Amino acid sequence: MQYEIDLPAGYDIEHRVATRGHRTDEFPGLGLKAYLVRDNQYAPFYLWADTAGMSRFLWGGGGFEGIVQDFGRPPVRHWTGARCLAGPARASTPKFATKRVGQFPEDFDRELEQLARNPAVHTTALVIDPRSWESVRFTLWTAAPTEDADVQYRVLHLSRPNIDQLS
Question: Per CATH, which fold does 80-165 belong to?
């Protein structure tokens, strides 16, 4: 899932993440949460190991209420996970993330496996919206990305409590 928040001028998102980001480091059901920023936008991306964790986060007192209180209730995009692969840099800290949006690729397994072999890839995942067959390929990088992407982010923090449960 992902939501995007346009930040007010002068808002210190790095301070917010530095002081609050640890709260999801052990969140039940969360595979990973990448605290992402670009320009003047905060756009965290989540991969959930189970939907109960996602539900608890969004409306069960799990943390989203802080976003709602400070910024209002942003629309939350969510997709069905198709595949998630560890890259060679999984043990390192990612610095960048990319997002590619398109139609469901018929050869997504081959594309994802090829990308996952890149030495700078921490994790790559493909998620699908079965209503429109829109696909999103999300990749975490430990060095500058080597693929063209629709959107590129900086990673301020990565929570990964159940990353090994993602597949």
Answer: Alpha-Beta Plaits (3.30.70)
Find out whether 60 and 88 touch, Cβ atoms under 8 Å: no
The closest alpha carbon to 130, from 82, 76, 58, 85, belongs to 82
Residue 77, Cβ density class (10 Å: 0-12 exposed, 13-18 middle, ≥19 buried): middle
Domain map (residue ranges) of the chain:
5-71, 80-165
Using alpha carbons only, what angle is made at residue 129 by residues 128 and 133, rounded to the nearest 5 degrees?
85
Q: What is the pLDDT of residues 16-27, one digit of tens each?
A: 999 999 999 999
pLDDT in tens, 134-150: 999 999 999 999 888 99
Tokens of 130: 């079965």
Q: Tens digits of per-residue pLDDT, 62-88?
A: 889 999 999 999 999 999 999 999 999
| Burial class of residue 87, CB neighbours in 10 A (0-12, 13-18, 19+) | buried
Instruction: Share the mean pLDDT of the chain.
Output: 95
